[in-house]
């Protein structure tokens, strides 16, 4: 199971990287086409869709790599048992928040699909298509936060953090 979850976070990060290259491609194509006097409608919108996909798909990989910003001032001042309890509490709160985000991201995709919601730009893209990346990214992020919460409750310290160690 550990290998599967780590692979899931890695694939999600890889997909984020692909979408980041998509942002670059859309922006470069927009600049080049503008210089050539050709208008390609919707490139700005697609750059935005790719940017959103990049951000959401990178959440779990970034979290599991220990790269999210953490304020450890209070944790460092506590004894080891207090650090562990506060860390688990914070992770439980993060689970609740990410579960909520995951739920409403999925609901947004379903609502956009059922109402045939399309973008108002030149591209007229059905909005549920780019919103899928947000829903998938928040779902994988929720899995990552829940995974880390369970690991901490079992007494396993964060693998990629050198700031806080439980004794």
Automatic annotation (TrEMBL):
Ranges that cross the membrane: 7-33, 45-63, 84-106, 126-146
InterPro entries (alphabetical): DctQ, TRAP_DctQ
Topology in membrane: Multi-pass membrane protein
Name of the featured protein: TRAP transporter small permease protein
Every Tripartite ATP-independent periplasmic transporters DctQ component domain range: 24-154
GO cellular component terms, semicolon-separated: plasma membrane
One GO process term, biological-process aspect: C4-dicarboxylate transport
Subcellular location: Cell inner membrane
Keywords: Cell inner membrane, Cell membrane, Membrane, Transmembrane, Transmembrane helix, Transport
Assembly notes: The complex comprises the extracytoplasmic solute receptor protein and the two transmembrane proteins.
Function: Part of the tripartite ATP-independent periplasmic (TRAP) transport system.
A GO MF label: transmembrane transporter activity
Taxonomic lineage of the native organism: Bacteria, Pseudomonadati, Pseudomonadota, Betaproteobacteria, Burkholderiales
Family of the protein in this entry: Belongs to the TRAP transporter small permease family.
Organism expressing this protein natively: Pollutimonas nitritireducens
